[in-house]
């Protein structure tokens, strides 16, 4: 490409001015919590008020204009908060900012980036409408005292153009680097070839479906069995479809799948060392923090103090690293003395691939506002998408406990104050709820309306609680408890703003404790709005059946759905159902010895490693005790209820390919060992799945059933059958991981043979056979292992 050809770059105006002009420190005290959502609400409030004063007031005015500076073709774009004609006839840009600064510090000059943002909007509007001059009004709303401050400046059109040109000249070295990278990335990705010599069975079809969706837009629901190479099958075509847009967001439910995405990017780099692909892995604050105790204030953290004054040097340096993993970010942050978490977020704006948890897109509090304030040309790859409805329910739900408010009141000691009074009023409301619970069967009740009186009491608590926190900034147990309470209250009020027919209020009491929850039963509208923020989305998993259920709950009703067959020989999997056992709750006591005998028969079929999955810890323990007493010669392991990361790693490390050794692990269905675990080859040769995995019947699950019966006519399927079978299929999928693997799966419960359950099984389970006794299972296992040795 000739050097004289201008480099082109599209740049959001807010990103430009904040990058160039923001200074100072990170200070995410309590005042920063959910500030973006609160700011948006206050913006709308001020905009509605402005219409009453200025009849021609336009809110959220989209502006876009090309500029040329130092040989770079910029396209600046943004959305002005307001545009109106002032009383003297001057056209005026209105820029609204919310702040928690004390009123005496709001001078209008404390944040030059705010003026610059509005000046850019004014410059574009004046240029496009041939105006000789414009007025800029900067409106600050002080949220604590609910005060409004306005400052205005008039500018000639020439002065505004000069301001824009000055900003662009200052940004030119960065623009030149970004535009050159984008140009080279495009050529590099066009030349990129699939990194393996051949495609696995079904892989080419999956790649084609993903590429078509990413190019044309829309959503794809892809059920792809284990072994097809799902990560590369979605990442490679998404990158090929990137063109000038992006980035690609690879969103995961757990850390192990983030590692899979990092490994796939590493494979692409190794296959093509000239590849221009910059990726960043976003890691939770607590996990990446460089301090022993995380406190993001300039007084407590040297990496937060002066962050914005040093971050540009760190960014410039970081752009030379094409794979920004957590370790790479920590090393870069130490070198430049900046916060690694914030540095990762800032670098994400310069990356082509962003790897991170679901919450970076779907969580209304911690989502990436720098990307998702408006729609962009983004590609979303959602791994293990069967987890998305449950995770989204949690993100849009909230709970509070009486003990937190009582404890806060107690910590404040004797004497009167507005904070203590507010806490006492809330505690009294909990006491009223407790009395009502005591009169209700199960000590829990549900309501379809949100708790107005409770919400008002919480709103009245916020101001005195905020004042107390502002006056007591030294960290101690009381400060930490009240700070957490403030976060929890604000989280509750955020959810209360969205409470509608998709929610239910639950109040439960046990002894002196009372817990109130707003439960999101159906998150599909939230997810639909999130997916609309990008160009395309691919939701993929080994288990997305039935497709209609996942399209519905994931908010992608118009998605194309594809289901790929298993790439492995069907004869490598031995699959049986023990039809003589019922694991229904009423039958469990009678089933324990039968299950123990079946498990023993399974592990006797061939020496090796096995897992047995149970619907609850209690049931697991009952069977394990009987099994260990009856068959002490078999080595066993048990998943504990409070297993930490190290404990989980130790558990899995026991599954080695030791010849002649037999090990049976007892685990919980739907738990950490039921999915996302890769025990290939001889590390796992069999699994037993006890029960069809139906969630335990309880008040909350019954609320789900009632909601989906009312709205879909499929309450039992949506609340019990579909999520249960998903856990079963995930657990069974641990056995066959590669084309060479051979193993057995034993389903223990007669309900697996019911037509409504059989129709949810994948095509490669067509060979499922029923056995009616231990002896019959023994014969089947003997035939299978003899055949597999040929």
Describe the structure concisely.
With 790 residues, the chain is of the alpha/beta class. The protein is built from 27 helices and 25 strands.
Alpha-beta content class: alpha/beta
Determine Rg (CA atoms, Å).
30 Å
How many separate helices? 27
**pLDDT under 50 segments (min length 5)?**
30-34
Task: Describe the model.
The chain has 790 residues and is an alpha/beta fold. Helices cover 45% and strands 20% of the residues. The protein contains 27 helices and 25 strands. The strands form four sheets. Strands 10-9-11-8-12-17-7-18 form an eight-stranded parallel beta sheet, sandwiched between helices. Helix 21 crosses helix 22. The radius of gyration is 30 Å and the shape is globular. It starts with 6 loop residues before the first strand and ends with a helix. Mean pLDDT is 92; it is low at 30-34.
Short descriptors:
alpha/beta; 8-stranded parallel beta sheet
List the SSEs and their pairings:
Layout: E1 7-12, H1 13-21, H2 35-53, E2 58-69, E3 72-85, E4 91-99, H3 112-129, E5 133-142, E6 147-156, H4 157-191, H5 203-216, E7 218-223, H6 230-240, E8 248-252, H7 255-271, E9 279-281, H8 285-288, H9 307-318, E10 323-324, H10 326-336, H11 340-348, E11 353-357, H12 359-362, H13 369-372, E12 379-382, H14 388-395, E13 398-401, H15 402-411, H16 418-438, E14 444-447, H17 452-471, H18 477-496, E15 503-510, E16 513-520, H19 524-531, E17 536-541, H20 547-553, E18 560-563, E19 573-578, H21 588-604, E20 609-614, H22 617-630, E21 635-638, H23 645-653, E22 663-668, E23 686-690, H24 699-712, H25 715-732, E24 743-748, H26 755-758, E25 769-771, H27 774-788
Helix pairs in contact: 1-3, 3-4, 5-6, 6-7, 9-10, 10-11, 15-16, 15-18, 16-17, 17-18, 21-22, 21-27, 24-25
